[in-house]
Design a protein that fits this description.
The complex is a heterodimer of chains A (109) and B (114).
Chain A (H helix, E strand, L loop, with lengths): L3 E3 L4 E4 L4 E7 L7 E6 L6 E5 L5 E3 L2 E6 L4 E6 L8 E8 L5 E3 L3 E6 L1
Chain B lengths: L4 E3 L2 E4 L5 E6 L6 E7 L6 E7 L2 E5 L7 E4 L6 E5 L8 E8 L8 E2 L3 E5 L1
Parallel strand pairs in B: 2-11
Antiparallel strand pairs in B: 1-3, 3-8, 4-5, 4-9, 5-6, 7-8, 9-10, 9-11
The chains are: A mainly beta (109), B mainly beta (114).
Chain lengths: 109, 114
């Protein structure tokens, strides 16, 4: 079983739609959680951290359920520029981050 | 530019040749990480340094791979006797102690072994 599992997609949505991605992780000791965004042939970039209480950054909302070992990302009012791969990331102990394979999002006009 | 810098951006090499990549982290970051990413996969952890000490190596890092960070600043990743399966994007990232704030990645070195 992979340490971080995501639906690979692609999710094809029209502009203005709301889309949600989910992720599960296997290490109950993980302490830090993130969503990264990766554009085609570019490096991953930190989108947002994920906190137990849930957190929002503009159109993006992230939630963490430690009991279920489940992380989600909600994108409201999708823009064409949101098209990318979204990587779910958890800490593997204190020393490294473990990345999921990513979920592809394609926003169309 | 105060980001993470990687050189070269692209490398094409013949099977069996040795290659070396360089990473210059953000100057105040004491942790440096190497990851490898293949098409359709997320980045996979290879190794990490805290200052000049290499503290963890993945089982993915065969004995053909070696990484150094001699003065706790830049790092090099060398692959000896390259194989076609080594073709991937090699990503370097840095952070200021621990994982709490995430990493900053460099643009990566794309290796193609022919």
């Amino acid at each position: 079983r992979k340490e971080v599992e995501q639906d690979p997609g692609p999710f094809n949505v029209p502009e203005g739609a709301t889309v949600a991605f989910n992720c599960t992780y296997s290490n109950s000791a993980s302490q830090s959680f993130f969503w990264y965004r990766q554009d085609c042939r570019k490096e991953p970039k930190l989108l947002m951290s994920v906190y137990s209480s849930g957190n929002e950054d503009g159109r993006f909302t992230a939630q963490l359920n430690r009991a279920s070992q489940y992380i989600s990302l909600l994108i409201r009012d999708s823009k064409l520029s949101d098209s990318a791969t979204y990587l779910c990331v958890v800490s593997g102990g204190y020393n490294k981050l473990i990345f999921g394979a990513g979920t592809r999002l394609a926003v169309h006009p | 530019d105060t980001g993470v810098s990687q050189n070269p951006r692209h490398k094409i090499t013949k099977r069996g040749q040795n290659v070396t990549f360089r990473c210059d982290p953000i100057s105040e970051h004491n942790r440096l990480y190497w990851y490898r990413q293949t098409l359709g996969q997320g980045p996979e952890f290879l190794t990490y340094f805290q200052n000049e000490a290499q503290l963890e190596k993945s089982r993915l890092l065969s004995d053909r791979f070696s990484a150094e960070r001699p003065k706790g600043s830049f790092s090099t990743l060398e692959i000896q006797r390259t194989e076609q399966g080594d073709s991937a994007m090699y990503l370097c990232a840095s952070s200021l102690s621990g994982t709490g704030n995430g990493y900053t990645f460099g643009s990566g070195t794309r290796l193609t072994v022919v």
